[in-house]
Structure formats: structure tokens, C-alpha cells
# Entry
Amino acid sequence: MLAVVADGDAGRADLLRAELERHGHRVVLAADAREVLQAAVEPDTLAVLGSHLPGADDAVALCRSLHAGGGAHEPVVVVVGGRDEVDTEAALAAGAADVWTIEPGGATGALDVRLELARHYARLQTENLRVGGEFALMRKALDLSGTGFVLTDPRLDDDPIVYVNHAFLEMTGYDEREVIGRNCRFLQGPSTDPADVGRIRAALREGRPFQIEVVNHRRDGTPFFNELHVAPMRDDQGRVVRHVGVQLDVTAYRVTDSLLAAEQQARAAAEAAERRSSFLAAASPTLGSHLDLAATLESLARLAVPFLADVCLVETFGGGEMRRVAASASRPGLERELLALPPTSPLDPDGPLPLARVLRTGRAEIVDARDGPIGDPAVHELLAAAGADGPPPRWMLVPLRARGRAIGVVALAGLAPERAFGVEELALARDVASRAALALDNARLYEQQLEIAGVLQASFLPAVLPEIAGLELAARYRPADGPADIGGDFYDLLELGEGTVALTVGDVTGKGAAAAALTGLCRHTVRTAWGYERRAAEVLRTLNHALVTQQPGHSRYATVLAATLTPGPGGVAVEVVCAGHPAARVLRADGRVEVLGERGTILGWQERLDLRPAQGLLAPGEALVVFTDGVSSGDAGGPLTTDALEQELTTSAGRDAEALADRLEAAALQAQEGHPVDDVVIVVARAAA
Ligand SMILES: Cc1cc2nc3c(=O)[nH]c(=O)nc-3n(C[C@H](O)[C@H](O)[C@H](O)COP(=O)(O)O)c2cc1C
# Structure
């Protein structure tokens, strides 16, 4: 690694150079701020900045300049100064990865460990910025999609709301301060059916995800139809640590006398809920593997041993217990025994044990193991046995602080008689703790991002398919394998009244928060447009207008197929309009497959559209099949070629809508060995036989 050293104190600069060279670094001495800036453009550079630098106010100001670009090659910066010479907080806020206290003319101490820690910190800082940025985008996406979103904490009394998004407040007319800390039942009122509340209560008691349509009241008392999705989030012990709630105001889509219909739908929704929402709950186990939290914490614990202590434990606190998330010991046998202990132990946060005290006060402590366990008695016994021949072990306990509060403790034990715990050791222990806290905070941010991604994706799909006499409907949605990215495909089926059903299937370019925001916009715009339009082409024009006007850069597009299906005495009349989307297929009773629809213009590109509606008629037993390019792009491409797609349909003739959808989904997945690279959406509408 190239190390650029700049220090107005020439003696200290020489000392630093000698020490860094001893650790194998190529060292350049910079005479002033300009030379530092020039040298630090090389990738993988360490900048060590001391006091009295020509050309800069001080080392902190120079550190800020080095980080101003936000580029990929930012150096790892360490600020050096004598005691009371450097404002540590200001230096860290300016992007410094560490502050080394070295008095002019003093010794450098063990730079190698501190260097390793500084590198860790710089990496974690970058990760924190990245994940934090994506998280902010995701919250914005949630607001743009018009979907209400709350998180409640079932571990607190009465399961109160701990997070609410802007769209929820807009929908209900409440202020954030009026809802945080309250149970969601404040939305219920005179029009709410007590039977619905009973269903919610039962589902929550059983700890299963559910969907229900319930009548709620806004702050001004007006009732609205709330399509509510709730799912429990569990930690890796299986305990429910959050409830995720998504609220969609579906009043606009309800006919006025639909209280009865809503109740019927709620019953059907309860059955569909299991399948639809279970992926929410499945999102949490992937936490951590992405950021490799365990490996980061373990390597931090290893850095501390044996340099700083004989044993290092990283313990987090939550739900009345401590959890050991990393452990290392200088003696391999002891480490094995520590790792074999149950990782959790109860802790009364108001009790007298040292771990509880450090969590409460947020202050580091050095305690003597003679006074009893610091927390888990099993750890105490192991250490007492390990240190039986020497003096009683001593502990250095340092709080793990994230976002202003203590979330855990780094516990360092000394067993060897010559082991000293002094000011220098405590400073290093704080370093380990601040890095561990950052790693944990990153993981927490990532977990929240996953939660939101799952909930948002669920809101792109209808809660329940309409039930229409003479028509069988089936739909499949299977997200692409890979990172927990959202966005992409959506579908919707809506009853327009007088037996007509509107069908929409779409695919937005890209993935991630921005694509998700657009997918939400598409789904909600299409739903609203179907509220007053009966012609599929007009619905697509409305959506195109929204996409073109609300996306000034025209950076993303959508392909959408919109169709209407009207059962009548002669069969089901179908009209299909494609906007850049693969055409639909009609499966005739004798197994013939016909193409219905012409590709038309993609949406979001320009106001002028070339759309060509195509009409057809489904005789009893015949089906309309619509899909996205995760199944087949309709021409030669996609997982299934046109021939393979049509062959699959032909051999499925005579089957009902569910079986048809199942077979096509299985074929699309099989063509990709079970790991779809793109979202798979299939909607089948079949004239009842
Ligand atoms: C995450 C979450 C979100 C909820 N959102 C709503 C809601 O939007 N509307 C509603 O009527 N009830 C909602 N509830 C249900 C109520 O909070 C409460 O659980 C329900 O009224 C049954 O409990 P109770 O009998 O104690 O009132 C939600 C519950 C949870 C856990």
C-alpha cells in the first residue's frame, strides 16, 4: 500500500515513515496539502496527516478535502496528533478512518493493528453509505407507489407502530406524531365489521401472514376500503420481532353495495394470503449473508486477540437477552468451548450485572471477574476454569453504539498475569467496538431494506382474483432468482362491472428502487384508469401519458398488455392491446394455438402511440394466455421459444385455468433449470367448459 505522510512536525513524520516502512508500506513524505492531494489519487492509498500542514488549515480540513470527491479511489485517511491536539469526533465526521495519538517525539506503538482497524473502518463506512442510500431510495419508492406501510413492534405493549411512511399518512389524514406508538386499531370505527377484526386478531395470534379487506375510517371520519396485508418478521430464533403492514386504499374500485362482496373476498383472500405473503417472512434469513456480518465481526474479534486481550466476545442486546455474535480466544481449546455455549442468555437491562450497567450508562468499564459474572454465568465458569492457575480474569467492557444508543457490548478478558488493561488498551477496545457497531448497523439497514422490498413487491399484485360467472382465472408470479432486488413485472385482474374483466400484465425495464417506484406507478395508474375507461387502448394511453410526464429523463420504459374479457351467450369476447409487449395466445379446444395482438409501441418513450386492438372470441373450454418475457418474448427469444411455448399449450388443451398456468410455469422454470433470470408472470383466462 502507498502511504503518504504529511506532518509539520518533522520528527514525528520521520518516526511514522520508519514505522510504516517497517510494516512493508511504500512511503512518500508530502511537504504540503497540494502534494497530499496529488499523491492520494492513486488507488489503495493511506494518507497519514499530522499537524501544522502548509496549505491546509489543519489535518481535519485536509481530510475533508480528500473525501470531497466521493470517488471510488478515496484514500484511507488517518489523522495523527498529540493528546488534546486533535478533535477526534470532528476528524471521524470528516471521513477519517482513525485518529492516532502520538506525542511529538513519542513512540508510535503497535501501528499494524491500528492500520488493520483503519482499513476495516473505511470499508464499513463505504458499505454504510451504499446501503443507507439504497434504503432512503426504497422509502421514497414506497411513498411514490402510494402504498401505506407500517412496521409495528409486537414485543412492546399493544404492538404499537414504530415506523410509518408518508403514503399511510396521506391515505388516513393523520399526522406522524398521532400514529407512532399507537396500535393500528385507531383506524377502525362504526363501519368496521367486528368479524373482520376477529379474523385479523386470529391471524396475528397464530403468527401467520394474511390479507384482508377491511373498512376503516380516516381522521375526518370518512370510511374507506383498506386492502390490508400483514406479515410477521422473525429473527433467526423464530421470534416475531416486527409486524409489517401494507395498506392500499381500494375504495375507488368498489361498487357501492359491495360490503357483502368485500366479505366474500376477504374469505378468499385469507386462503390466498399464505402463498402470497410468505415470501415476506422468508426474506429475513438472507440477512447477513449478503454483508457477511459474521465474518466481519469474527475478524474484528480476532484482531483484538491476543494483541489486546485473551478473550474477545461481541454481544448484542435485544428482547431481554444478550446474543454472542462473535467470540475468539488466544487458546484454541477455550475458543471451541466458548463457541459451543448457547449463544443467548437472558439479561435484565435494569439489573446489577456489569453488561446491563454498560448498556444503561453507555460508558466503558474495567471489572474484576472475582465480583461475579458480567452476564452469562456459563462464560464466567469457563473463564474461571481457564484462569484457575493465574490471577482472576479481568474484563474490559466497551459499549457498542449505533445511532446514539448502546446496542451491545464488546467484552475483552485478560487471563495472563502480565496482561494490563490501561488507557491505550481501552482506546483500542473502543476502536474495535465502533467498527463492530458499524457492521451491525449495516446489517440492520440491509434487513430493513429487504423487508421493504418484499412488501413493495407484494403490493404490485392483486390481493385476490375476481370471481366471474363463465370465466376461470389463474395467475402465477415468480420473482427472478438473485439479490433481493425488486421491481419489474406486475399483473392485475379487475372486475369492471356487468361481468367484464380487465386484465393487465406489464414489465418495467430495470430492477431496484427506481424500477419499483415506476412499477408501483404503473399498477396504480392502470387500476385508476380502469375505473373510468372501458377500452384497453385508452387505459394504455393514460398510462403512457403518466410515464412520459412523470419521468422527465424518459429513462425507463414499460411493456404492457391490456385486455378486456366479457362473457356472453356466444362465448367470451376478448379485446387485446399490446404496447411493446409479447402478444397473447389463444388456446383452442382442439389444441390449436393462435396469436392475438400486435406488439405496438412501448410505453414511456413518447406521447404518440401506435396501438392496434385485436378482437377474438373464446368458445367454452378455450383460454387466453398472457405472459411476460420471463416465460417467452414471443419471437425466437426468452426461456421458451415460440415453438416450445405453443407446443406446451397444445399438449395442455382441455385442462382448467389453474392446471394450464401450472404447466406453463413449470416449463418456463425447467427451461432455466429452476433459476429464472427474469420475473415470470402468467395469467390465464378460460371460458368455462
Ligand atoms: C402491522 C399491522 C398493521 C395493521 N393495520 C391495520 C389497519 O390498517 N387497519 C385495521 O383496521 N387494523 C389494522 N391492524 C390490526 C389492529 O392493529 C389489531 O391487531 C386488530 O384490531 C385486532 O386486535 P384487537 O382486537 O386488539 O383490536 C394492523 C395490525 C398490524 C400488526
Summary: The pocket of flavin mononucleotide is lined by residues 150, 152, 159, 183-185, 187-188, 197, 200-201, 204, 214, 216, 226, 228, 230, 243, 245, 247 (CB under 6 Å). Residues 255-291 have pLDDT under 50 and may be disordered. The first strand starts at residue 2 and ends at 6.
